[in-house]
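Changelog-adjacent note: as of this version, every example in the card shows the full chain rather than a window. The one below runs 366 residues end to end.
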Amino acid sequence: MNDTILVSTRKGLFWVARRNGSWKIEQADFLGDNVTLTMSDPRSGRHFAALDHGHFGVKMHRSTAKGWEEIAAPAYPPKPEGFEENDAWGRPLAWSTARIWALQAGGADEPGVIWCGTLPGGLFRSTDDGESWQMVRSLWDHPKRKQWTGGGADLPGIHSIVVDPRDSKRVWIAVSTGGIWFTDDSGASWTLRGEGMRAEYMPPELTHDPVAQDVHCLAQCPAAPHRMWVQHHNGIFVSSDEANTFTEITGVEPSAFGFPVVVHPHDPDTAWFVPEIKDEKRIPRDGRLVVTRTRDGGKSFDVLTSGLPQQHAYDVVYRHALTLDATGDRLAFGSTTGGLWISEDQGDQWSNVTCTLPPIYAVRFV
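Full-length structure tokens:
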């Protein structure tokens, strides 16, 4: 089992470790800085941290034997002279990295390859452990990219990157708002997937358009890569054909809305979600923090509450703030109110590690 968790927060990166049967915060890095995301590369053992310094821009750091070193951050190319671009809402779209929103190691057969998704919708690839980055121009220059819009963030962004465990050249990405895209040639070309998803907030002629879908999170079962789960702005969707088509899961209580989803590594029918009220509210229903779990592909759901606050809990869990370890037994999630909870038994029982961290953006097992 994984015994260390990296917790990315508004004011630093915290290392949480399991020692003598209990979880404790053991280390803090980048204190006071906005750490938006981390990634641990299973091939090299290196850790990567994305920081947002506001006016001073986005920075990337990589772990070393002595600590951390700053490395290159993905950078957009300059706009062609005289070229102006607006987003789908008519607002000027700057070609600059506003946020690093996804980091994913490449396959085991391609050491050094890392994928990076950003706002305002650029996808980058490194072949040298983040020493340098190349924008995937085939996606950025795709004519449908200009139909992407902002979702929860004002800018369109790539937040989910899934590398096929059977073939590293096959990669899926998810965009808020811009649907699901797939490449089978390491990014040289792209196709739009996601038939069957539904966006009730769009005009009728766009409700079922794959490019109009506000995907909040995309997850794949490693043992059954054809099975993919989506937490969508409009609810929960599941695919059994590699995201070509999706089926909507309805009747989920207390809500089908949320941001994260994780899937059991060996059982494609088992997935977890953290529900809340959607749109203007963005809080747990009735002030009760719960996790929902299906074990039968979405036919039924357990509402998991043991160890979680059930009164006046207004924790929101972002799309990268729910994580599952490689065994499929141990889960952890962090909230916008600085709470961190861990379960050792697939969510049946939760224990609180702390409620005093800064707002949590991402949680990852090492």
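Structural remarks: The chain has a mean pLDDT of 95.
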